[in-house]
Amino acid sequence: MDAFLDGLMEGMEIAFSPVGSVILPGFKDNIKGYNARYLFTAGPKVATSAIFSNGGLDVQGKAISDWDTRVSFSTPAALRQFLLSKDQDILDSILKNEVEVDGNLAMIYKFGYISRNLLGRLGIKQG
Fold this sequence. Notes:
5 helices; globular; Nonspecific Lipid-transfer Protein, Chain A; five-stranded mixed beta sheet; alpha+beta
């Protein structure tokens, strides 16, 4: 698994846990009532799944078959660039052949928003 994606997912999982609610008050509001199943792939060896349900997040370091949205990046670097971009122009990434999306594009923007919100709260600089 890609170290960046692994770290981001683990950070999100903690942020949405009861401990995270104390450390990052209000952050869990981002997923109130949100149920979604994401599959991220980046290159041939990276697969991570994120399952949002019941106000929590379950991260799995493997591909799930029953995803709502699948995002396949050409490389782990393309994934990092998209998630850290302030603009998050998924169409530009598609035109550059860096990403392929199956499912609801709005869900990609939601995940990106949650990612950037967490990174911002942690003081991690974003592109």
